[in-house]
Amino acid sequence: MATAAVKQSQILNVSGDSSTYFDYSSVELEDPPRFLPYDFEVYDWKEWCRYMSVKWHFCLIAGVIYIITIFGLKAFMSTRKALDLKRELFLWNLTLGIFSIVGFIRTAPEFFFVLSSENGFYKTICERSGGNMPLAFWSLAFILSKYVELGDTVFIVLRKRPLIFLQWYHHLMTMVMCWISAPYLEPISRYYVVMNYAVHSLMYPYFALKAINIQIPRFVSNVITTCQLTQMIVGLFVNMYTVYLINGAEADCYRHQVSMRLSFVVYGSFTVLFGKLFNDVVAKSRTIPKTKSS
């Protein structure tokens, strides 16, 4: 979610309790703002954070419904013909692609501004500074979009395409992590939001074109898979680095135990799963011998 400017003395480490983290009375966005919002981007972000902190279990309920739905639907479709849904799938992926592109455009400037400042890497992962309304709005949109993206799996099941573990596990755990971690307003969430928007800006337009049978060079798929794996490695690395800062360097770093542990589980497992996908899709594709042209 949104980050906000606070005094260095207010930065907490993993020893802070949840009640302190959910007290937003002293947390304010930049004034004057460095990045101006559009009218539709202005909303009560504190109220949304409070709501997610109280309704933390909402994502778990949604997750159970998701699992029951996709596997129940898979069983239902086992005796029926696959649905075509090319037009619907094209529009679905196109919409999510446009959404991701706009989300990246609105969140990346703040991220790179902070990253390029003095001691920028530390600030991007540990210090609550540079908060602005565009980042707050598109961070919330990012979180809510994880519920919408569950529809990707529904399309797979209805079209009777192979439903691999990575597909539904990735959607499920991303939704849970984003919803539960959001109220802590951790600076490190910049990486999750901006990287995911960037990767999806490539992935969903690619799937949109594939849905209408447009031929795309194989290297494009390899690039997207490589970007996905890179995203997971970076996510795991920045989490590990904050642990070092807190425990090894004894530096101030705004993290909470719940979010930190959940992030390790999610990004650790994602790195393994996407690493396997990379090996199956990218690495092996480069070892296939080329046939001589006649």
Automatic annotation (TrEMBL):
Signal peptide: none annotated. It is found in: Membrane. It is an enzyme of class 2 (transferase). It comes from the Eukaryota. GO terms for cellular component: endoplasmic reticulum membrane. Its main location: membrane. Keywords: Fatty acid biosynthesis, Fatty acid metabolism, Lipid biosynthesis, Lipid metabolism, Membrane, Transferase, Transmembrane, Transmembrane helix. It is a multi-pass membrane protein. It catalyses: a very-long-chain acyl-CoA + malonyl-CoA + H(+) = a very-long-chain 3-oxoacyl-CoA + CO2 + CoA. GO terms for molecular function: fatty acid elongase activity. InterPro entries: ELO_fam. The chain crosses the membrane at residues 54-77, 89-115, 135-158, 165-185, 219-244, 264-283. It holds the Pfam family ELO. One of its GO terms (biological process) is very long-chain fatty acid biosynthetic process. The keyword Disulfide bond does not apply. Its EC number is 2.3.1.199. Belongs to the ELO family. This is Elongation of very long chain fatty acids protein.
